From TrEMBL, chain A:
It comes from the Bacteria. Keywords: Ion transport, NAD, Sodium, Sodium transport, Translocase, Transport, Ubiquinone. It is an enzyme of class 7 (translocase). It catalyses: a ubiquinone + n Na(+)(in) + NADH + H(+) = a ubiquinol + n Na(+)(out) + NAD(+). The lineage of its organism: Bacteria, Pseudomonadati, Bacteroidota, Flavobacteriia, Flavobacteriales. Its EC number is 7.2.1.1. This is Na(+)-translocating NADH-quinone reductase subunit A. NQR complex catalyzes the reduction of ubiquinone-1 to ubiquinol by two successive reactions, coupled with the transport of Na(+) ions from the cytoplasm to the periplasm. NqrA to NqrE are probably involved in the second step, the conversion of ubisemiquinone to ubiquinol. Residues 264-313 form the Na(+)-translocating NADH-quinone reductase subunit A C-terminal domain. Belongs to the NqrA family. Composed of six subunits; NqrA, NqrB, NqrC, NqrD, NqrE and NqrF.
From TrEMBL, chain B:
Its main location: membrane. The chain crosses the membrane at residues 54-76, 96-121, 133-163, 237-261, 268-288, 308-326, 338-356, 362-382. One of its GO terms (cellular component) is plasma membrane. Keywords: Cell inner membrane, Cell membrane, Flavoprotein, FMN, Ion transport, Membrane, NAD, Phosphoprotein, Sodium, Sodium transport, Translocase, Transmembrane, Transmembrane helix, Transport, Ubiquinone. This is Na(+)-translocating NADH-quinone reductase subunit B. One of its GO terms (molecular function) is FMN binding. The gene is nqrB. NCBIfam families: nqrB, PRK05349.1. It is a multi-pass membrane protein. Composed of six subunits; NqrA, NqrB, NqrC, NqrD, NqrE and NqrF. Its EC number is 7.2.1.1.
Length: 450, 414
C-alpha cells in the first residue's frame, strides 16, 4: 500500500546554474580513478599490483573485513598509480584506460529462479555490491544482514542536483531488473518515492511500493522518507540505493557487464553552459568541465551537490556515487559590515534584515563563504524548522559531540546519515559542522556497538 | 583598508592577541572564511546578525527611556501636566537633555566593563570574543533605575559576566541569563538603590531630606503600599510612568516583540505562553478576591485585586517576557519545553510580584528560577521522544545475521 505524504519542514535552496536537459558525450578520459574515501569504512586489500592490466569489471581490491566483497575497475587498462597517504593508507587508484575497452562478461543468475544468496554472491563478486548502502551507520551494506526494507529515493530535491527522471529516461528495463534482484534479498518491501513527476521511470514498476512525497528539500533525501514510512529501530537494518546506482546494478544482473557509464549533471553558477554529460565513474572531471566552460578562474568544484558533495579540483575525478558535479564561486573575501547590513543576495532562514523570504522563487548565486564565524550552539528552535524527522536535531548533535553512546542511540542516531543534517548545517547560525559531527558519531557508534 | 587589515590579521595569527584583534576585525568585515567540510554553501545569518537584531529591537526602548527620565524628573518637580501632549511635554529637548547624561553613562559602563572582561577572557583562554554580551550590555541599563551609581553597575557587571557566564565557558554555555544575574546582584547587594520611591526619578535620592525633595513611585510600588495607582491605563500602556529605564513603555516593547517574532529571532512560543501564564495567575488572584476569601485589610488585597491583564502593562513583566525569557541559551531548547517554560515564567512572575514582601516585582526572579529548571523541562520533553522510540522498538523486525546462523550451526555440531 503506497502512501502519499507532504513534507512541511524544509527549505528549498534555489541556485543559479541548473543543468539544461540536453546531453552531450564527454570526451573520453585518459585516466580513471577510484577515490577510496567514497567507500567509507572499507579497508582495501589490493588484488592487482601497480603496473598490471585489468579489464573493465575486474576486481581491483576487496574489503578486508569481508573478502567476498569486490570492488571492480570501471574501465580496462593499466593500474598506473596507487596513491597512498599517511601510514600507507590507499587514497586513490588510477587506471590508464585502453583505447579499446575490454569487459568481463559475468554469468548472470536467472532472476526467476535464483535465490537471495545466489544474487548476493553474484553482486559481491562482480562489483555491484558497493552500490547498496545501509542504515544504521550510512556505510556499504553488510551482506551478512537481511534488511527489513529497501528504500530508493526516485527524485532529487537538493540544490542543482541531477534530475532523476532525465538521467534514467528509457532505462526501465534495467531498473526493473535491479528491483527484481533486490527483492530477492529482503522479505520486506522496496519503497520507492517520487515527487510529483508524471514521467518517472518508476511509475509502472513491479515489486515496489511507490510513494509520492511532496514538499521542499529534504523531501528527496532517502533518510526523510525512511523516517516517514518505516523508521529504523535499534537492531534493524534497511538498505538504500540512489537511482543512478540502481541502474548500474540492474544492468549488471541483466547483461553481466559492469557498465560504468553514467549521465552526470554539470551545474553551478560558475559553469557557462550547465548541462548533462555521458561519462563514466572515475572519469577526469576536466573532460566535460571545460566543454561547458567556466566563467571564473577560481572556483569550488564539488563532486555531488552543494550541500553534501565533497570538495575536488579541476584535476579531480567523478566520484563513485555521484551523478552531479557542481562549480560555485569561492567566497574567501571580506564583506564590509556584512553582519548588520540588509542582505538581498543570499539565502536565509530568518528575516533578520535578510530578504530571501520575500522572493521564494528567486535563484541565488551563493559562494563558499561561511558568512560568519564558528560559535558555540546559541540559538535554538532553528533546526527544527527545516528538519522533518521525528528527532531532536540539536540534542542529537550534542550527544555526538560529547560521545554519549546511550544518548546517541536513544535519540535516534541509527536512523540518520550525515546528509540528513546538511540543511541544518546550511542554516546553522553558529556555523557548526553538523555532517562531520554526525559522521564521527556514527563511526563511534559502529565501532563500539556495531 | 581591507588588505591592510588582512595583513594585520595574518600578523596576529597564532598570537595571544589574535582573538582581540579578530573581534575588532570581524566587527568591520565578515571574515573571508570558507567552508571546509559538509555543506559548501551557508545561509546569510550568523551570531552577530542575530544579536544585532535584538539590539535593534531594544533601541526604541532605550530612546524612550531617555525622554522618560526627563519627563519623570520634571513632573516630580512641577507635577504632571494636565493636558498631556506628546510633543509638548514628552518628546522635548529638555527631557532628552536629562536622559542623555544620566542614561548614556550607564550604557557606556555596562558595555565598557562587560566587553573588557569578555576580551580578557578570550585572550587568556584563546577563544574568539563571542557576541552574547552585545545584547546583555544593552539590556542591563534598561532594567535598572535611572540613578544607579556607576560604580555599583561596574561591580555588578563584572560579577554577572564572570560568575554568570565566563566560568561556564562563555556565550552558549551559561545557565543563568547574565543580564538578570547582574540585576539580581544589584538587587541583593544594594537593595535600597533598587526599590522605594526615591530611585525611579532622576535626582530624587540627592534631593532627599532637602526642601526640594521629590519622589516618584512605580505603579506596583503604590499598589503594594495599598493605594490605587494614580496613572491612567493609557499612561501605563504608552509608558509615561516611573520605572526602570527601558521597561515602562509596553507599546514599544510590543513593537520590539513583533519585530523579533517576524524576523524569527526570538521564540514566539515563549512570549505567547508567558503572557498566558501571567494572565492565568492574575485571573486566579482576581478570583480569590471576587470570591471574598481575602479580607480587605490584607496587605495583598490591592495587588491581588489589580485587574489581571493590567499586570502586563506595569513593571518589568512585558520587558522580561520579550527580551529576557526568550534568551535561547538559558531558556528551554525544545519547542514543547518552550511552552511550559514560558507559561511558568508568566505564572510565577505575577505570583512573586504579589507575594514578595520586600519588593513588589518578581519577573527577574521568576526568569532566573525557570532558567535553572529549563534543562529539567527539556529533559522530560526529550524523554518523551525517547520513549516513543523505545515503544517502536517492540515491533522491530530484526533478522538474524547469516554469520550468526553459521555460528549456531557450528556450536550444534560441536
Amino acid at each position: 500500500m503506497s502512501k502519499d505524504i507532504r513534507i512541511r519542514k524544509g527549505l528549498n535552496i534555489n541556485l543559479v546554474g541548473a543543468a539544461e536537459q540536453t546531453t552531450s558525450k564527454a570526451v573520453t578520459s585518459n585516466v580513471y580513478a577510484l577515490n577510496l574515501d567514497d567507500f567509507h569504512g572499507i579497508t582495501p586489500k589490493m588484488l592487482v599490483k601497480q603496473g598490471e592490466e585489468v579489464k573493465a569489471g575486474e576486481a581491483l581490491f576487496y574489503n578486508k573485513n569481508k573478502a567476498e566483497m569486490h570492488f571492480v575497475s570501471p574501465v580496462s587498462g593499466e593500474l598506473v598509480e596507487v596513491v597512498r597517504g599517511a601510514r600507507r593508507r590507499i587514497l586513490t587508484l588510477k587506471i590508464l584506460a585502453d583505447k579499446e575497452q575490454n569487459y568481463i562478461i559475468n554469468k548472470v543468475p536467472d532472476l526467476d529462479t535464483a535465490d537471495g544468496a545466489a544474487i548476493k554472491n553474484y553482486l559481491l563478486q562482480c562489483g555491484g555490491w558497493p552500490f547498496i548502502k545501509q542504515r544504521p551507520y550510512d556505510v556499504i551494506a553488510n551482506p551478512d544482514e537481511t534488511p527489513k526494507a529497501i528504500f530508493i529515493s526516485g527524485f532529487n530535491t537538493a540544490p542543482l542536483a541531477a534530475n532523476v527522471d532525465f538521467i534514467l529516461k528509457g532505462k526501465e528495463q534495467e531498473l526493473q531488473a535491479g528491483i527484481d534482484a533486490l527483492s530477492k534479498m529482503t522479505p520486506g518491501k522496496i519503497h520507492v518515492s517520487i515527487g510529483d513527476s508524471t514521467r518517472s521511470p518508476f511509475l509502472n514498476m513491479k515489486r515496489i511500493e511507490l510513494h509520492r512525497v511532496k514538499g521542499p528539500h529534504p523531501a528527496g533525501l532517502v533518510g526523510t522518507q525512511i523516517n516517514q514510512f518505516d523508521p529504523v529501530n535499534k537492531g534493524e537494518v534497511v538498505w538504500t540505493l540512489s537511482p543512478q546506482d540502481l541502474l548500474m546494478l540492474g544492468e549488471l544482473v541483466l547483461t553481466g557487464k559492469f557498465n560504468a557509464e553514467r549521465k552526470v549533471a554539470l551545474a553551478g553558477s560558475v559553469v557557462k553552459t550547465p548541462q548533462y554529460y555521458t561519462t563514466k565513474i572515475g572519469a577526469e572531471i576536466s573532460t566535460f568541465l571545460y566543454a561547458s566552460g567556466v566563467t571564473e578562474d577560481r572556483f569550488r568544484l564539488i563532486n555531488g551537490d552543494v550541500l553534501t558533495g565533497t570538495k575536488t579540483s579541476t584535476e579531480g575525478y567523478l566520484g563513485f556515487y555521484n551523478s552531479t558535479v557542481t562549480a560555485i564561486p569561492e567566497g574567501d573575501d571580506y564583506d564590509l559590515f556584512g553582519w548588520n547590513k540588509p542582505i538581498f543576495n543570499k539565502i536565509s532562514n530568518t528575516r533578520a534584515m535578510t530578504f530571501s523570504w520575500m522572493l521564494p522563487g528567486k535563484k541565488y548565486k551563493l559562494d563558499t563563504n561561511t558568512n560568519g564565524e564558528h560559535r558555540a550552539f546559541v540559538v535554538t528552535g532553528q533546526y527544527e524548522q527545516v528538519f522533518p524527522m521525528d528527532i531532536y536535531p540539536l540534542q542529537l548533535l550534542k550527544a555526538c559531540m560529547v560521545k554519549d553512546l546511550d544518548e546517541m542511540e536513544q535519540l535516534g542516531l541509527y536512523e540518520v546519515a550525515p546528509e540528513d543534517f546538511s540543511l541544518t548545517e546550511f542554516i546553522c547560525i553558529s556555523k557548526q559542522p553538523h555532517q562531520q559531527i554526525i559522521r564521527e558519531g556514527l563511526d563511534l557508534l559502529q565501532k563500539e556497538l556495531g | 583598508m581591507k588588505d591592510k587589515l588582512h595583513q594585520l590579521k595574518l600578523k596576529y595569527q597564532g598570537t595571544k592577541m589574535a582573538p582581540a584583534f579578530n573581534a575588532l576585525h570581524t566587527f568591520l568585515y565578515t571574515p573571508n572564511e570558507t567552508t571546509h567540510s559538509g555543506a559548501h554553501v551557508r545561509s546569510a545569518d550568523d551570531l552577530k546578525r542575530t544579536m544585532n537584531t535584538v539590539i535593534m529591537a531594544l533601541v526604541p526602548c532605550l530612546l524612550f527611556g531617555m525622554f522618560n527620565a526627563g519627563y519623570q524628573h520634571y513632573s516630580a518637580i512641577n507635577g504632571f501636566p494636565e493636558n498631556f501632549s506628546l510633543f509638548e511635554h514628552f518628546l522635548t529637548w529638555e527631557n532628552f537633555l536629562v536622559g542623555i547624561p544620566t542614561i548614556l553613562p550607564l550604557v557606556i559602563v555596562s558595555y565598557g566593563v562587560g566587553l573588557a572582561i569578555e576580551f580578557l577572557f578570550a585572550v587568556i583562554k584563546g577563544h574568539e570574543v563571542e557576541e552574547g554580551y552585545l545584547v546583555t550590555g544593552m539590556l542591563v541599563p534598561l532594567i535598572i533605575p535611572v540613578d544607579t551609581p556607576l560604580w555599583m553597575l561596574a561591580i555588578a557587571v563584572a560579577f554577572g559576566v564572570v560568575i554568570g557566564k565566563e566560568v561556564f565557558g562563555g556565550t552558549g554555555m551559561n545557565i543563568l541569563n547574565p543580564a538578570l544575574t547582574i540585576r539580581a546582584f544589584l538587587f541583593f547587594a544594594y537593595p535600597t538603590w533598587m526599590s522605594g520611591d526615591k530611585v525611579w526619578v532622576h535626582e530624587a535620592v540627592e534631593r532627599a531630606g532637602t526642601a526640594d525633595a521629590i519622589s516618584g513611585e512605580t505603579v506596583l510600588g503604590s499598589l503594594a503600599a495599598g493605594s490605587e495607582p494614580t496613572f491612567s491605563l493609557a499612561d501605563m500602556f504608552y509608558g509615561f510612568i516611573p520605572g526602570s529605564v527601558g521597561e515602562t513603555s509596553t507599546l514599544l516593547i510590543l513593537l520590539g516583540a513583533l519585530f523579533l517574532i517576524f524576523s524569527k529571532i526570538a521564540s514566539w512560543r515563549i512570549m505567547v505562553s508567558a503572557v498566558l501564564g501571567s494572565l492565568a495567575m492574575g485571573l486566579i488572584f482576581n478570583g480569590v478576591v471576587d470570591a471574598g476569601w481575602l479580607p480587605t485589610y490584607s496587605k495583598f488585597y490591592t495587588l491581588m485585586s489589580f485587574p489581571y491583564w493590567q499586570h502586563l502593562l506595569v513593571g518589568g513583566l512585558a520587558f522580561g517576557i520579550v527580551f529576557m525569557a526568550t534568551d535561547p541559551v538559558t531558556g528551554s531548547q525544545t519547542n514543547k519545553g518552550k511552552w511550559i517554560y514560558g507559561f511558568l515564567i508568566g505564572f510565577l512572575s505575577v505570583m512573586i510580584r504579589v507575594f514578595n514582601p520586600g519588593y513588589p516585582e518578581g519577573v527577574f526572579l521568576a526568569i532566573l528560577l525557570m532558567n535553572v529548571f529549563a534543562p529539567t523541562i527539556d529533559h522530560y520533553v526529550v524523554r518523551g521522544n525517547i520513549k516513543k522510540r523505545l515503544k517502536r522498538l517492540k515491533t522491530a523486525t530484526i533478522y538474524p545475521k547469516s554469520s550468526d546462523e553459521v555460528d549456531s550451526l557450528k556450536t550444534e555440531t560441536a
